[in-house]
């Protein structure tokens, strides 16, 4: 016949437990026994830590004594005079030559600082093209044109870079701005429009001619296509109303997926060539 467990009270925690057999009047449950074992282990570890701490203090004391002995020994060694041997002089040295480690300069870059290092040009001769990664690799066939690419940049990033130039009293004959692709991902159309307005207004204080390069057609889903199309339509009207020249890249890239890379967003080499021609044509033909 199978034994039946009985309910007993633990003498430590006074909680009921089920047990098949109880030896004597004192009963300790499994949890209390584990607590006792862990408590003993903790006490043992604390004792070892205290012992190690005292040993480390002894080691430091011995090291201090040895250091003091070495200092006194070096100070008591008399300086030997060089021994003259014919035309040669022998010199005994008691210290090793200090090794000089060559330092390799570390190049630090900041994607928001390249404009400050741009060559200073005369306002009547220089033009600035600034934008996100879409303008990477563009080749502007126009004299004295600075192209600054800020990968991942949104309108506030472009504004921050222009602010750096504005504080340095930099002026340009023309400023071309290309931004918006990264902004539409935030799904905040009105905020994006306000940010673009602020960028253009700041650019106007630095140049008499401001040009906005419109977004490219994107083939990365219906949503981003729709948002970029809407932004392009708004830009074409707003730029006309605010005396800002507008480059309608959408018209050039529409229906041409071959002009984009496999990501459906950045221009391929053919797309870069077409974008470069659009920018060059606008820079060379807009009236200053």
UniProtKB/TrEMBL annotation:
Keywords per UniProt: Signal
Signal peptide residue numbers: 1-19
Pfam families: Lipase_GDSL_2
Domain SGNH hydrolase-type esterase: 150-271
Protein name: SGNH hydrolase-type esterase domain-containing protein
């Amino acid at each position: 016949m199978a034994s039946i467990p009985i309910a007993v009270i633990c003498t430590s925690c006074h909680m009921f437990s089920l047990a098949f057999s109880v030896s004597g009047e004192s009963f300790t449950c499994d949890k209390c026994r584990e607590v006792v074992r862990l408590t003993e282990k903790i006490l043992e570890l604390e004792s070892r830590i205290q012992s190690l701490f005292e040993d480390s203090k002894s080691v430091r004391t011995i090291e201090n004594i040895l250091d003091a002995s070495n200092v006194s020994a070096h100070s008591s060694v008399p300086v030997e005079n060089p021994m003259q041997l014919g035309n040669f002089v022998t010199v005994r040295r008691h210290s090793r030559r200090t090794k000089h480690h060559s330092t390799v300069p570390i190049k630090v870059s900041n994607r928001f600082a390249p404009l400050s290092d741009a060559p200073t040009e005369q306002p009547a001769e220089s033009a600035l093209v600034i934008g996100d990664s879409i303008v990477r690799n563009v080749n502007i066939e126009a004299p004295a044109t600075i192209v600054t690419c800020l990968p991942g940049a949104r309108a506030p990033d472009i504004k921050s870079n222009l602010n750096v130039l504005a504080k340095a009293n930099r002026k340009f004959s023309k400023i071309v701005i290309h931004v918006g692709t990264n902004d539409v991902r935030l799904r905040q159309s009105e905020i994006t429009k306000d940010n673009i307005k602020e960028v253009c207004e700041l650019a106007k204080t630095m140049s008499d001619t401001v040009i906005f390069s419109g977004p490219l057609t994107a083939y990365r889903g219906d949503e981003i296509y729709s948002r970029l199309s809407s932004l392009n339509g708004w830009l074409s009207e707003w730029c006309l109303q605010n005396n800002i020249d507008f480059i309608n890249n959408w018209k050039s890239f529409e229906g041409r997926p071959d002009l984009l890379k496999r990501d459906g967003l950045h221009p391929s080499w053919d797309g870069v060539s077409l974008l470069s021609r659009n920018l060059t044509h606008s820079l060379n033909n807009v009236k200053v």
